[in-house]
């Protein structure tokens, strides 16, 4: 049996989410850096494994999986990780799946917003796309996280007592907003969630790698 390989980039929120799960689950894995800025994802040796040409993806003894949420569910089952990470009771599991699906067209707006904001900052051109569309949608998602998904005593998504893969994915996506100094304080439940997630030792480790690179490339202190 070979070690599971994670094809990864520190600037990729879903890549970081998968890495957090591997670390929390103490899975012995091998990391393969994919330089997205240089287009490594399109190189024949990568493309021959993953025609989707995006990270993260994993290779587990010849079996290739892409899409971070599918990867996380696979890792959970494959390595018999703690059920608190992905509860198995039908209703609980369905809640997590519901968030994971919702994430792609809501929380994930953060990625578009950060990219567009950084681009417009770099070019000096205000971006209508940022202002009118993505920003509004992102704020709607953030408000729903604050008012609905995290509005409970535990401040984990849907009020589970321990962090789940939904929390890990959500947290890593929103961490990106720190690059543009997003004001989390306006959203107290979300702010509490971000703080408690950032104190999990394995998440701290992954965040450190991201913040070191953010400082080097964007001169931003996270
Ligand atoms: N829905 C996918 C999103 C994957 C994704 O957007 N990956 C980006 C990095 S965050 C990527 O590889 N971009 C490079 C490209 O599209 O060329 C997931 O959750 O894994």
UniProtKB/TrEMBL annotation:
Pfam families: GST_C_3, GST_N
UniProtKB keywords: Cytoplasm
Recorded GO MF terms: glutathione transferase activity
Occurrences of domain GST C-terminal (ranges): 89-217
GO BP: glutathione metabolic process
Gene3D superfamilies registered for this protein in UniProt: 1.20.1050.10, Glutaredoxin
Protein name according to UniProt: Glutathione S-transferase, amine-terminal domain protein
Domain GST N-terminal stretches: 2-83
One cellular-component annotation, GO: cytoplasm
């Amino acid at each position: 049996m070979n070690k599971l390989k994670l094809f990864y980039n520190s600037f990729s929120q879903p890549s970081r989410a998968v890495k957090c799960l591997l670390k929390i689950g103490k899975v012995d894995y091998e990391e393969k850096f994919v330089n997205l800025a240089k287009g490594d994802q399109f190189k024949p040796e990568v493309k021959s494994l993953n025609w989707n040409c995006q990270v993260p993806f994993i290779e587990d003894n010849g079996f290739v999986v892409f899409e971070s949420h599918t990867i996380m569910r696979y890792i959970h089952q494959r390595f018999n990780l703690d059920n608190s990470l992905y509860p198995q009771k039908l209703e609980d599991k369905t809640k997590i799946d519901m968030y994971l699906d919702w994430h792609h067209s809501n929380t994930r707006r953060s990625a578009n917003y950060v990219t567009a904001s950084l681009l417009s900052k770099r070019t000096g051109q205000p971006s209508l796309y940022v202002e009118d569309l993505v920003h509004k949608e992102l704020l709607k998602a953030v408000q729903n996280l604050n008012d609905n998904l995290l509005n409970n005593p535990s401040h984990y998504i849907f009020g589970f007592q321990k962090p789940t893969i939904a929390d890990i994915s959500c947290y890593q996506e929103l961490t990106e907003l720190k690059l543009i100094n997003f004001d989390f304080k306006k959203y107290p439940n979300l702010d509490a969630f971000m703080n408690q997630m950032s104190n999990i030792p394995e998440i701290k480790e992954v965040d450190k790698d991201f913040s070191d690179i953010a400082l080097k490339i964007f001169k931003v202190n996270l």
